[in-house]
Write a structure and sequence with these properties.
The complex is a heterodimer of chains A (256) and B (312). By secondary structure, chain A is of the alpha/beta class. Chain A is built from ten helices and ten strands.
Amino acid sequence: MPPLLQLDRVTIRFGGLTAVSEVSATIDERELVGLIGPNGAGKTTLFNMVTGVYQPTEGRIAFDGRPTAGLKPFDLTARGIARTFQNIRLFPSLTVFDNVRVAFHLHLRHDATHSLTRGRKFQTEETELRERTRDLLGIFGLERVQDEPAKSLPYGDQRRLEIVRALATRPKLLLLDEPAAGMNPAEKVELMKLIQFIQEKFKLAILLVEHDMKVVMGICQRIHVLEYGRKIAEGTPAGIRADPAVIAAYLGQEHG
Amino acid sequence: MFPKSQLWLLAALALAGVVSAFSGRLDSYVLDVAMGVGINIVLAVSLNLINGFTGQFSLGHAGFMAVGAYTSAMLTTTLGTQLGGSPALLQWVLFPASLLLGGLLAALAGLAVGAPSLRLKGDYLAIVTLGFGEIIKVVLQNVDAVGGARGLIGVPAYTDLFWTFGAAAVTVYVVWGLLNSTYGRGFLAVADDEVAAEAMGLDTTRYKITAFVVGSFFAGVAGGLYAHLKGYLNPGGFDFNKSIEIVVMVILGGMGRHVGVIIAAVLLGVLSETLRSFGDYRMIIYSLLLIVLMLTRPQGLFIWPLWKKKST
């Protein structure tokens, strides 16, 4: 079976700066992969290329067996790549319910004209979507705040809501950009449980960009390590922990 | 069976028809102001879809209004005399057709202006629409076929209470209907965070263009109503000040609020009549009003509940 996501010698340059250089990597279906590296290693840039925000200068990215070159972020979401943001980006003035409901729209069979005719098909589909939104919120314990504007939620709930909203697009691959940022140790443990729960329950692959070693080492099956835009290592958490290049580049700094 | 929202629309249309039937008993000045208010509602509610709900900033609503006004007026003045026919027939067939055509042409202009500028994020739309409004004005001033700077005279007075408030009801229904669906929540999402909306699979450019084209359509319809209300068109009447007047209604009502913007449209329609005796000072009063409003109630005047402080 071909990998779900395949990066083939992906390079991006901004003027004279090579932010990511010849990175090759794969993610299989239903795999939980970590992407780590020191600040400025190019993790978020790589992330932005996978989600279509940037186009690679060289190299190819394929998702689900098809190249993604030239596709816009919303095309890729329709194909099955969903993401969260490092600095939470909810729809702040929309209610919690509508934040999730709007993400369901990809799977609508009706469009603008139906919302004017408001026929029976439109009504049943809307009712169905409301139920599915409520169900999804229920799984994550957010149904009690569903009518609050998203901006009024506490930080942890906002993080969770962002993940729930991404799930509503029914992704095959979920990219989480530093989900543990700004969380205390107890919240991080919660988050790890949540990520594993999502992977099992929704049967999807997850790419986790994270600074927190405990989180990455604790749940990822495989880890890619970036430094100065190059991939310096790939392997299991145990292998990465013992890799001399990684220790020198990254973990070593924490001790020294 | 009709959905509830469509019953509301039918009821509003019926009410407009009934009131219109008895409009002969009303004072003609009051009637004039009332019809102006109806046109204001069409303008403000349609601009609210663009500026309020979708979070774009158009400064050219008067330009689209001009496109609709001249299209529809040219149609009724030229075709009306050729077709002959009874005045009632012209008012009930030719007039709505001309309104529709005016709206469609305005929508087309909206597409031409919006498609390139809405691809970009940020405030490019404000600049482009500002330019568009001026261009339309200058073009109309220089085309002799539509009267040039002297204006277009002899537009038949087909506009009545039914057509103005009927159009207002349809506008409110369309904007409300578009927004109250899973699809329509996308407009609000685009206004809130374009990057996140794109990441959720929303084609943000398409949403913005849709809002802009629908908004322009109703501006064109409002223009047609205006032309057949005043009986006389002057390119200067569709200048930047007119666009600002409509923007003020939207801001005063609270961007992206349904009821507030309607109240503001009514209030400003009446206010601008009362201020008419001040002549050119009217725009100064408008500007002051806007400044005071932004300082004291940035969320808009008619946000429910009225007196509770907005939590951030």
